[in-house]
Design goal:
InterPro entries: AAA+_ATPase (IPR003593), ABC_transporter-like_ATP-bd (IPR003439), ABC_transporter-like_CS (IPR017871), CBS_dom_sf (IPR046342), P-loop_NTPase (IPR027417). It comes from Streptomyces cinereospinus. The protein is of the alpha/beta class. It folds into 2 domains: 2-248, Rossmann fold (3-Layer(aba) Sandwich), CATH 3.40.50; 253-362, CBS-domain, CATH 3.10.580.10. The chain has 16 helices and 17 strands. The protein has helices spanning 41-48, 71-76, 93-97, 99-103, 108-121, 126-129, 139-151, 169-186, 197-203, 221-226, 231-237, 241-248, 268-278, 307-310, 324-334, 353-369; strands at 2-10, 16-25, 30-34, 56-61, 64-65, 78-82, 157-161, 189-194, 206-210, 215-219, 261-263, 282-286, 292-297, 312-313, 317-319, 339-343, 346-351. The strands form 4 sheets. Strands 6-7-8-3-9-10 form a 6-stranded mixed β-sheet, with helices on both faces. The protein binds adenosine-5'-triphosphate. The site of adenosine-5'-triphosphate has 12 residues, from α1.
Length: 384
Amino acid sequence: MIRFEQVGKRYPDGTTAVDGLSFEVSEGELVTLVGPSGCGKTTTVMMVNRLIEPTSGRILVGGEDVATVDPVRLRRRIGYVIQQVGLFPHRTVLDNTATVPSLVGWKRARARARAAELLDLVGLDPRTYGPRYPHQLSGGQRQRVGVARALAADPPVLLMDEPFGAVDPVVREQLQDEFLRMQAAVRKTVLMVTHDIEEAVRLGDRIAVYGQGRIEQFDTPAAVLGTPASPHVAGFVGADRGLKRLSVTPIEPGDLEQPPIARLDEPSGRAAGRLRADGARWAVVLDADGGLHGWVGIDMLGASARVGDLARRMDAWVPLGAPLKQAFGVMLQHDAGWVAVLEGARFVGVLTPAGLHEALRRSVDADALGVARGQVAFDSVADA
Ligand SMILES: Nc1ncnc2c1ncn2[C@@H]1O[C@H](COP(=O)(O)OP(=O)(O)OP(=O)(O)O)[C@@H](O)[C@H]1O
C-alpha cells in the first residue's frame, strides 16, 4: 500500500536526513517508526504526502508514484495527524472535523453528519463537544479531534507524527487503547512516528527501528524485542526487553496448568475426598456448562453441603490469547497466585507465575531460533 524504494533525502546544506530507505506497509497494517531524535522519522512520513520531496528513490501509495500526483489531491487521500494538532481556533470542533469533507465538495449536511460520526468514534459525544471551540477542550480531547479530522474523508492512508506525544502518560495510554480499538474497526494503512519504544511495541503490527538516517530493523514487535538486529537496536529497546515482551506474547494452551476441578452441584464431601487423594489444597469450581464459577479450598469443604454452597466466586480470569501482561496484571490486582483462562465462556486451565515465566522463555527462544512460535516442539514426558 505504501512502498519506499531506495528513498533518500539530502538537504541543500549537505545534511543527509535519510538514505536508501526501502520498506513496505501493507494494506491495513500499522507500522511504527521509532528511533532517537533527528534520525529521520519525520522526514520519512512527510515525504509520503509531499510536504518534503525526496532527493532520490520513489514512494508509491496504492501503486502510484506520489511524485506524479498533484500534492493537494494527494493530501486529501492521506490523513495526517501531528503532535501540535493545529485545529482552527475560531471554528467549532464539529466544523474542524468536517474540514476535509467540505474541501472535497461534500454538501454541508453530509460533511457535518460524517464529522459527528467520527467524533463519536474517537470517544467524544458530538452533542457535547461538537459545538465547543478547541480552547474549551483538554489536550487529550484536542488530540482525539485531530484523529477524527484526519479520518473524516475516509482516507485509506493515515500518517501520524507523535500523535499522542503532547499528553501525560495516563491519557496517552487511554488514547493508545482507543486508537487500537478504532484501528481494529477501520483498518487504515498507518505510518506512525514515535520516539517511545513502548508505544511502538503496543501499537505497531511491525516496527521500523531507525539508526542515523536509515532503518536498522524492520520486524514485528516480538522479533525486535527478542532478537535485536544490532547493538544499537538492543540499546534502544532497552534492558527491560523481557518485561516488554509480556505485552506481545499471547497466552497459549501449552502455558496452562490443569488444577483439580469440582462441580457446582457435586456433594462437598466427595470433592474433599478427591482433593485429599490428589494432595491438592484447592479446586477450581465449574458450572454444568464448563464455565468458571470460582474456587474452593479443602478446608472450606464441609461434609453435607454441595460445592456450590461453599465455593467463592472469582473474577480473576483472562481470555486465551490475551497478552501475558494482562494475566500478570490480574494476578497483581487480585493478589492471586494463579489466574483462570477461558476460551469463550469455557474454562481451559490456569496460568501460574511459573507458567508465565515459561511462556516468556518460550517466546524468547522461538525468536532466537528464527522459527514461528507454533512450530516449536517440546519434549514431552511420554518421549522421555
Ligand atoms: N530543512 C532542513 N535543512 C537541513 N537539515 C534538516 C532540515 N530538516 C531536517 N533536517 C535534519 O534532518 C535530520 C532528520 O530530521 P527529522 O525531523 O526527520 O528527524 P526525527 O527523527 O523526526 O527527529 P525528532 O524525533 O527529533 O522529531 C535531522 O538531522 C535534522 O536536523
